[in-house]
Amino acid sequence: MSDNQNLLAEQRRALILDEVRRRGGARVNELTRRLNVSDMTVRRDLDALARQGVIEKVHGGAVPLVEASTHEPGFEAKSSLEQGAKEDIARAAAAMAAPGSAIALSGGTTTYALAQHLLDVPDLTVVTNSVRVADVFHTAQRAGGPGGAARPGAATVVLTGGVRTPSDSLVGPVADQAIGSLHFDVLFLGVHGISVEAGLSTPNLAEAETNRRFIRSARRVVVVADHTKWGTVGLSSFGRLDEIEALVTDRGVSDEVRAEMAEHLPGLVVAGEEDAA
What we know:
Blueprint: H1 9-23, E1 26-27, H2 28-35, H3 39-51, E2 55-58, E3 61-64, H4 75-79, H5 83-94, E4 102-105, H6 109-118, E5 125-128, H7 131-143, E6 156-159, E7 163-164, E8 170-171, H8 173-180, E9 184-190, E10 193-195, E11 199-202, H9 205-216, E12 218-224, E13 236-239, E14 246-249, H10 255-264, E15 268-270
Parallel strand pairs: 4-5, 4-9, 5-6, 9-12, 12-14, 14-15
Antiparallel strand pairs: 1-3, 2-3, 7-8, 10-11, 11-13
Helix pairs in contact: 1-3, 2-3, 5-6, 6-7, 8-9
């Protein structure tokens, strides 16, 4: 970490979270020295991270909160995490969707942010198993143009059926059959976790199978995941790193993690960096 009094709160908290996870814990006095901020500032940051459910405060510092591999947070709980990072990722990923193409969006809060940026891409055909993602497009269509007319170039949206998960994704045999019969130019895939050992993973067994169908039906696979997903492992793996064309992540990744990502991923895009590879 570099000493910088001008770091935005979100950037500072991302650095703190990375330090806690990488070292298995951090003390307040170490963080104040590394970040060159006050004791009070660090304690406020730790309070904010604890409310997000990503660390546990202990006497004098914090330790990472280790979740069970089967734990699946609800959509609202995940929406409050890494909001700025998700917006950056969504903006960068939207540039990968060509007008008139057929795309798929899996469930998740990052793909939900991406959907809002895709509203400006004309003539898309969008297949999704996310109730929230589908609602973004349907709401825009209902708003329409002048006099309530359909917006020119509005996306055609197909929502798969299936059983609803805590994160508002539709999974199971109905979703799997619908996805398996289609073909996509590009799949934008949200993940619970991504690692060298486990690849892409999720705590939901049924969602893992649905995501496998998505991957098999896509010519290109683009994973959209903020830096906190790297190193996280869910109960079930559903994809290998070499099946991904690109990972779009955010500037919260440390230099060490960035090097590891670049070594094992075919393509890495760090949103917000002009020289992203």
